[in-house]
């Protein structure tokens, strides 16, 4: 009988703990272009050459807390295309694709991971389409960006931050761990 009472009390306590934890909620509120730019500084001359592109691509992400449980995530894509032989700039396209995400019940490292990897994965197809359309409207062949693994980029960023933290700790007089 005492075991039964202990189990019931344990189940009630677990139920109360579940009620105290906020429910995990993730929803996309809005997708929008925050900033867009296209330059073709050497047109129309560049159209007279055979198109032999050399693509330079730069990606960056950032997130900002807008309100309780509401976050803006932005992917900045910069594509600079030059002629592979002459080095002449064909075009420069910059897009800031953004989204508003409602996220509750997720905190700490898990929230950081969601904002740094999961949300950019949701936004990237929209950024790809925007870059492709922009370049095409500039008179150039479509620029089909390859899919990006934001999970891997996030992991690389965390490794760099950890290495920088270790280097700063060592520089401040802490001893670096040694292998035995």
The main β sheet shows up as: 4 strands, antiparallel
- Spell out the CATH superfamily of the domain at 29-152: SecB-like
**CATH architectural name of the domain at 29-152:** Roll
The ordered string of helix (H) and strand (E) elements is HEEEEHH
- Helix content class: 25-40%
CATH topology of the domain at 29-152: Bacterial Protein-export protein SecB
What is the mean pLDDT?
Answer: 85
Helix/strand class: alpha+beta
CATH class label of the domain at 29-152: Alpha Beta
InterPro entries: SecB, SecB-like_sf
Biased composition (Polar residues): 167-180
Main location: cytoplasm
Biased composition (Low complexity): 1-17
Outline:
The protein is an alpha+beta fold.
Report on this structure:
- The chain is an alpha+beta fold and 180 residues long.
- It has a domain of 124 residues: Roll (Bacterial Protein-export protein SecB).
- The chain has three helices and four strands, in the order H-E-E-E-E-H-H.
- Strands 1-4-3-2 form a four-stranded antiparallel sheet.
- A hairpin with a 5-residue loop joins strand 3 and strand 4.
- It is elongated, with a radius of gyration of 24 Å.
- The N and C termini lie far apart (56 Å).
- The C terminus is likely disordered.
Which secondary structure elements does this structure contain, and how are they paired or packed?
Elements lengths: L1 H19 L4 E15 L13 E15 L2 E14 L5 E16 L3 H30 L12 H22 L9
Helix pairs in contact: 2-3
